[in-house]
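As a warm-up, study this chain.
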Amino acid sequence: MRDQLPWLCQGDIFARAPVVDVSITTTGEVHAAVIDGPAVLLTHDCDMDKPNRNGTPRVERLQFARLRAIDALPRDRQQTLRSTREKIPPYEVLYLGGIPSFGESFILFSDPYYIPVVHLQPIFREYEDDGPGEGGRYLTAQENDTRVGRLDAPQLTLMRQKMSAFWARIIEDQGGG
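Now compare it with the structure written out below.
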């Protein structure tokens, strides 16, 4: 995990974000609720950083995945996630390791949800180039910004590979040969 940037980025970790919780009642009815909880932003940077002609964000909603505690899983699944932490399979899940104030965590790509971008009251803000390729105009949250960090570069690359494998069944070569 690394520190978040001032602007919104794919892989940002939110301490408190609206989390859509869907369950089945004992009578078989679907129940949906929105609760505050930790989540990871899945929306790609390119989607967030494109403005409309009037300068407002083109993106209308942001995709998130709920941050889940690994200790809620059976021991064999915990061990599988830990032992495959740098591999593309299993495609459905991304092991994140220890997240400060949350503990050992993972996300599921089979359980994404969307929140209207207006929840963050974002604006485009210009940032100076403090490093290679970081200057520019980026979407920046003005409200409800509870980010505590973001995925590091290897985790972000693996997340993108796993999302491609899970959703499109496109599996990229991991290299290392």
